[in-house]
Amino acid sequence: RKDNxxxxxxxxxxxxxxxxxxxxxxxxxxxxxxGDTPLIKxxxxxxxxxxxxxxxxxxxxxxxxxxxxxxxxxxxxQNPIIDKAVGENERKDIMEDGxxxxxxxxxxxxxxxxxxxxxxxxxxxxxxxxxLLRMQKDIRDIRKIENPYFQMRMLxxxxxxxxxxxxxxxxxxxxxxxxxxxxxxxxxxxxxRLLGSIGINGIVINxxxxxxxxxxxxxKEYLPDxxxxxxxxxxxxxxxxxxxxxxxxxxxxxxxxxxxxDEKVKKWWCDxxxxxxxxxxxxxxxxxxxxxxxxxxxxxxxxxxADGANMLAAALKPFGGVVIWRCFVYxxxxxxxxxxxxxxxxxxxxxxxxxxxxxxxxILQIKNGPMDFQVREPVSPLFGGLKKTxxxxxxxxxxxxxxxxxxxxYLIPMWKEVLDFxxxxxxxxxxxxxxxxxxxxxxxxxxxxxxxxxxxxxxxTGLQLAQSNLYGYGRLVWNPDLxxxxxxxxxxxxxxxxxxxVVDTVSDMLLKSWHIYESYTSPLGIxxxxxxxxxxxxxxxxxxxxxxxTYHRADYKAIGVDxxxxxxxxxxxxxxxxxxxxxENIDTCPQELLLFFHRIPYTYKLxxxxxxxxxxxxxxxxxxxxxxxxxxxxxxxxxxxxxxxYEHVLHxxxxxxxxxxxxxxxxxxxxxxxxxIGDELGRKxxx
Length: 687
Ligand code: GCU
Prior knowledge:
With 687 residues, this protein is an alpha/beta fold.
């Protein structure tokens, strides 16, 4: 840990409230520890760090209570002190990885119990207790039981072994440098702490695009180093996974084929799995991007995705591993002259016919939307479309299309919309979160994967405020019923302070930021008006006359893609009836997705009464005004956050304003030139 910390939610600044501090100290001076597993030790270590920093005392660690007040940690069934504190019903309510925090008062004792049925639960409970202390919550009489909502709570790193990060905006990889594993294990450990504290339990440590060196991660050249990394993460309850190259049997195995039905290939992967597990006994499994964007896959051998995934799954099965197979499969060579092909349909078209053909340790990982992490997309119809297959939801924490951690864009509200989206797959209330959790179709595995936004910048995420997306991601996959407001408030309090003005101001900035970003970028769900390749900054036609299938089809009269069954590409037909009807009908289609589903003239009147063209102008002028307000809000708390952070964020917000102006002007001018229709309010549009 750097002297100054890394300015994050584990900062554990000194508590401001003296009275509460004294109350807390009473319990915190003594920790009664039961059990000796690495995770219990880790939990105690975390308690010490937190308590020392927040309360300025060093707790004594004992194995029997000496004082009348203490905190006791340990799993159930280890010691009568803990067991007696937990009622019959409470015990039934605690699930795997869940915890109970409870204040017990007897005639002569007053103590806090943190327990769970496994030691990971205890660790999570400890982090939550520390969080409550930092937020200065009154924990007298506390009785809190929590269980994680999703079984798999994963991060996907798109790190390459040369140290670069695909779509990384916060420096280089914290895992690799120069095609080697890093020596800076202290940093990795700090990262594991961060992730453990928010309940993350799996991490894919390399990019889905598996290049030359990364292909060799599963060989003895790198496995000893991977083992060390796994040990660090294990202490915080996190299993590691690799992205693998489907062509590995050829590239590193000396075989002449990677055909999933070939016996030699099967054996090769089985042996490989055995080798990996001999280094990393709790290895999670493989993440696979196959037959997607030029990556190798089973298609080469006229086999399908199920053949490919099941072959790998069979190799991992004896060890309890899983195969996470990505559904990001589409024709990336579409010709813009081709109006029939619709990239939005691709994932469903590819995978729906295979529903039921995957083994039970295969999980299909589906991006939240049918395209690719745009600022606004409908939910992928594969959620609710697949009924006999384990599914993971993939979201992008790293802000590839949402401002690249130069713009403020708090993504929790977006993910909540996805998780709460009603697919109607089993009638009303069949939300994405229930499907992904596995409770609708009785799936064995399931959860959420977030593409990480972290690099070796001191503040982890480039823009310091972008940490809120990582924190919020973890909190949301632990409990998707938390509100965006609650999560924002927690993060601000933990990171900065409990000062009401700071909490209110920064929370408000976060909560508005997604809509602000959306308002000055591409309108009404059409997406993609970015510079090709690096995806930063406006370029309305950047992808328009190109491959990749990402078109807005703007001409001088109209814009948008007709994806209806009635007259368009038929994409809406992939949804269940209620959803299909909603999108199919221009009157019931949510306005924010209008151009995604319908092609409409610029003079079309929206529900607000504005024409489409005027709406575009209004939102783009307004977006810049809002970005300016973000800066003013930040300025209003000067002196209340560390100066260094204040200046850094201010600088980024200033950059955001300038860049928002560029977006506004490029978009407005584009449409002004196409239509010749001016702004009703006579604001400046360049011609
Ligand atoms: C996007 C992104 C790529 C990434 C791909 C994927 O297209 O721009 O960098 O590899 O998604 O998710 O596989």
